[in-house]
Every structure is written in C-alpha cells, then in structure tokens.
C-alpha cells in the first residue's frame, strides 16, 4: 500500500517505477504529453481528472485511490495559497462531517411547514372537514376566535376566510410559534440565514457541556445533539438585542421544529425511549412563515380571555383528559422560557405551571363558564369519544352528553361526526374512534 500522505505526482512516479515503465513509454502508450507527465511527477502541476483515469487504467491501479490523492492535493493547493486557507479547510471539514447544508436565500431553501411538528390532539387531518362545516352552517367573516389554538392548524385555515383571527394558548412554546408564523412584523431573512449557517457548521466536539446537555443528553436527545441545542438556545438569547420580536420568535420556533424529529421519544416528553440513540446531524432549518395582518395573539387563561373578546364564531378544542400539555411538552416550555429551572423525576420536569382545569374534575364547570361568556354568534366545539377509554389518563373529563346539554342551554346545536385515527401510545383500544363537531347558533 502506497503512503497516503505523499502527493499525486510522487504516487504516480512510484507506481510507474514499480511497474517498470519509462516515462517516454507511458507518454507514447497513453497519448499524454511527455512534458506534462514529467511536470506532474515532479509536482510542478496537477494532473486533470481524465489524465488520472487514463493512468489508473494503464497501470491497472485503483482509480478511486488516485482520485482521492488528486482531490487532497487540490485542497492542499487552495489552502496554501489563501490567507485563511486553513480556517476554510476546517470549516469545510465540519460541513462534510456533520452532513449540514448552507443556505443562500429564504425563498429557495427547504423550510418547515406548520404541520411538520408532532403534537397530540393535532387537528391537521381534520381541518378541512371542520372548516367546511363551519362555512356551510354559519355567516359572517369578520372575527374567528380559536381559544385553544394548539398547533393552530384550524386558525391558519380560518385566515383564508376571516379578516381577524384570534389565537390563544397558555403554552409559551405555542405562543412563540404563533408570533413566528403569523406576526406581520417585517424581518430580515438574510440575517437569520447567516445565523443558521453558523449553527449548521458547529462542531459539538468544540462545545462545552451546558444546561441542556447535562440534563437531557443521552436521554431525550443524543449527547452531541443536546450540546448543540443548549449552545444554540443560549446564542439566540445572547443575540436578542440585535433581533426584533419576529426574528427572535422565528429562531426559537425553528429550533423546536428542527429538534422535534431528533427527540428520543414517541412524540411528547412524558418519557424517553430507553435505547441507544442513533447519531444524526442537526441540520437547522427555518420555518415557512404565514404572515397575517389580522392575527391577534394571546397567551392567557381562556376563561378569562373570552370575557374581553367579541366575534362571529369561536372554535373550541380544549384538552379533555388528564394529560396536561404543559407537562407533555415541558422541554419546549423550558427552551422557550430559558429560565433553566431545577428538574425532577425520571422525565426531568420542572415544577408544575400552566395546569389546565380542563384536565381535572372541574372541566365541566370550566366549559360551561366558557361558552356562557363567549360573545359570538356561533360556537364550534371539537370532541372525540375517548371517554370510553379503559385508560384513566385517556378518559375524558367531560362526557358527550354533558357537552350537548351545556351547548343546548346557550343555543340551537347540531352534531357532526367523522371517523378519525387518534394519537395512541399503545395502551388503549380506540376502535371505531370518532371526532365530533358540535355547531351551536347562540340565542340572541
């Protein structure tokens, strides 16, 4: 095996001499100019790729090995003749090693769409059905209120019809996403592309352990990935003064979307999978914004907020079972607030906050209070039949009959239904699962 550290010229000369050929003989049989061959072997010039291929064939030598020598010499030549050549080489090495891509402009880069993130209770697959019923059965297109917006897939669709759309969710991570996707504030895409290009060339081996990696590395995320996440989150915070609120929100939301599919979970953070985590690159990407001038964004208790709102229709999709979303998505809540709290238990959760009454025995009363205080013409309420579940955590806190009774007391109610495959971690049998939409025209 030839020394891999010698130049392509030295390599070709050594092969020729080992094979017992004179230089003139090689020139005649390969039709490569004698002077060119001489200059190549003495290192005064580099061969072309076609010349290397001809010589590899003539010498019955590995073309792949010779091409690798040629490429390395080309890189070396560039490094030696540039003031920052060595730095450029190391940067290129990182890009290749970690499989990352650099971007040039926002319009042409691959971006995360709103529906790209995993989220329990996501209505993305039901949105068309929901909005079709609403448009058929209601009038008015001024204000649509989505009081428990979640991923905001329904609110996004409503933006095609209504002048104003209210988005509200108690989670910090959802609220920042609404600002990122819908806030109509101007923002500098080139600035953010330059920042994510920096993130995509980070080498985790050069990054110290941090709050995120110490807590979640090797559990919810692979160790190197967790170091990158912690470093990037802190860097976004350090840059906050040079970013406007929209740019800050886009970077945070893009970080959440980037790491969502890298999480060592089944789609939420109530637990992690206790198996070795596959090493993968971060590949930070931006979201596809959906700027909407009529977006009104809140992060408030829904029952308090409705007393300050007025609109044509309110869409209501609260949590119905005991699964608290603030606990399911505690890592994203932690990342967005970045208070670095002390964590507890196997799932490494902070102290409870933003706990919803709709996940407790008080759900029925909370729902009744909500619909009675909504100043709208129509109520559209999503509901699924998981109250028949054998699992206590999956069992609904409000029954179908209770929903119907409460709505009938405030207006004329129709019920629509659709078969739907429900999010399931495997403990509950959801055969014949259905999604219901209650549509109520409120009494004057």
UniProtKB/TrEMBL annotation:
Biological process according to GO: DNA restriction-modification system; methylation
State the InterPro entries in the record. Cro/C1-type_HTH, DNA_methylase_N6_adenine_CS, Lambda_DNA-bd_dom_sf, MeTrfase_D12, SAM-dependent_MTases_sf
Reaction it catalyzes:
a 2'-deoxyadenosine in DNA + S-adenosyl-L-methionine = an N(6)-methyl-2'-deoxyadenosine in DNA + S-adenosyl-L-homocysteine + H(+)
Q: What class of enzyme is it?
A: transferase
Q: Which GO terms describe its molecular function?
A: DNA binding; site-specific DNA-methyltransferase (adenine-specific) activity
The answer to whether keyword Transferase applies is yes
What sequence ranges are listed for the domain HTH cro/C1-type?
A: 12-66
Mitochondrion in keyword set: no
SUPFAM superfamilies per record: lambda repressor-like DNA-binding domains, S-adenosyl-L-methionine-dependent methyltransferases
> EC no.?
2.1.1.72
Record keywords, A-Z: Methyltransferase, S-adenosyl-L-methionine, Transferase
Q: What name does UniProt use for this protein? A: site-specific DNA-methyltransferase (adenine-specific)
Q: Which organism is it from?
A: Paenimyroides marinum
């Amino acid at each position: 095996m030839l020394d891999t550290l010698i130049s392509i010229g030295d390599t070709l000369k050594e092969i020729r001499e080992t094979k017992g050929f004179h230089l003139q003989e090689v020139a005649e049989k390969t039709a490569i100019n004698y002077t060119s061959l001489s200059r190549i072997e003495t290192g005064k010039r580099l061969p072309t790729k076609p010349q290397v291929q001809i010589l590899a064939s003539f010498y019955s030598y590995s073309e792949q090995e010779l091409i690798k020598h040629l490429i390395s010499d080309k890189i070396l030549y560039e490094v030696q003749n540039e003031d920052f050549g060595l730095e450029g080489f190391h940067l290129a090495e990182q890009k290749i090693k970690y499989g990352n891509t650099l971007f040039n402009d926002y319009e042409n880069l691959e971006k995360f769409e709103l529906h790209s993130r995993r989220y329990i209770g996501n209505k993305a697959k039901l949105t068309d059905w929901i909005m079709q019923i609403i448009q058929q059965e209601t009038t008015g297109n001024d204000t649509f209120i989505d009081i428990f917006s979640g991923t905001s897939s329904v609110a996004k669709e409503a933006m095609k019809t209504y002048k104003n759309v209210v988005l509200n969710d108690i989670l910090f991570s959802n609220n920042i996403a609404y600002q990122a996707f819908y806030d109509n504030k101007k923002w500098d895409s080139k600035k953010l592309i330059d920042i994510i290009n920096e993130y995509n060339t980070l080498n985790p081996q050069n990054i110290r352990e941090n709050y995120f990696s110490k807590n979640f590395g090797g559990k919810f995320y692979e160790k190197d990935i967790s170091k990158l996440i912690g470093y990037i989150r802190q860097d976004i915070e350090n840059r906050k003064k040079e970013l406007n609120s929209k740019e800050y929100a886009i970077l945070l939301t893009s970080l959440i979307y980037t790491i969502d599919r890298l999480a060592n979970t089944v789609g939420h953070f109530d637990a992690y999978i206790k198996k070795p985590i596959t090493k993968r690159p971060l590949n930070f990407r931006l979201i596809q914004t959906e700027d909407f001038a009529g977006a009104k964004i809140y992060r408030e208790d829904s029952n308090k907020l409705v007393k300050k709102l007025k609109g044509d229709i309110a869409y209501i999709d609260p949590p119905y079972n005991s699964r608290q979303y603030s606990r399911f998505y505690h890592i994203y809540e932690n990342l967005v607030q970045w208070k670095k709290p002390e964590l507890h238990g196997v799932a490494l959760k902070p102290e409870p906050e933003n706990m919803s009454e709709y996940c407790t025995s008080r759900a029925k009363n909370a729902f009744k209070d909500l619909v009675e205080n909504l100043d709208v013409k129509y109520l559209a309420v999503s509901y699924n039949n998981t109250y028949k579940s054998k699992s206590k955590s999956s069992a609904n806190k409000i029954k179908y009959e209770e929903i119907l009774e409460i709505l009938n007391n405030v207006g004329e109610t129709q019920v629509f239904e659709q078969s739907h495959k429900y999010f399931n971690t495997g403990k509950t049998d959801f055969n014949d699962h259905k999604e219901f939409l209650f549509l109520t025209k409120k009494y004057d």
